[in-house]
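User: Hey, quick favor. My workstation is busy. Could you predict this chain's structure for me?
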Amino acid sequence: MPQIDQLSETLTSQVFWLLVFFGLTFVLVGLGMVPKILGTVEMRDNQIAGDLAAAQAARDAATAEEEAWRTRENANRAAAQALIGEAKAKAAAATAAKLAAAQGRLDAHLAEAEAAIEAARSSAMAEIEGVAADAARDIVARVAGANIKPATAKAAVKKVMAHG
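Assistant: No problem, here it is.
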């Protein structure tokens, strides 16, 4: 076959040009494109690492801000509780003062009432003594027919009332 005979004559030339073509392709790709691709990959890796570092820094700042906010909130809550306690104490003191004043007025009214009752009792006892002395004088005058002095009748009635 003539094609097979021709193959041996052209095979060396074709292998040579194949090696030259692949060598040039390897040099162009290896020296021109691969460094650019590796540079792009490295730049992308650096950008991703920078973005991750920025995200971590933002997370740390947010955590610190949250902690500061919680600290302020706890301090504000404690101050509010102190104000509430102070207000309760003031209200309790005011209520105690009002109760003490009301108790003082009540005690004063009670003392006045007791004095009025005592005065009324003394007045009633004096009236009773006077009526009893007059009644005793009348009884003695009717029963014994004797006339006794009002002072003597009052003294006798006081003596009897004092013993019982």
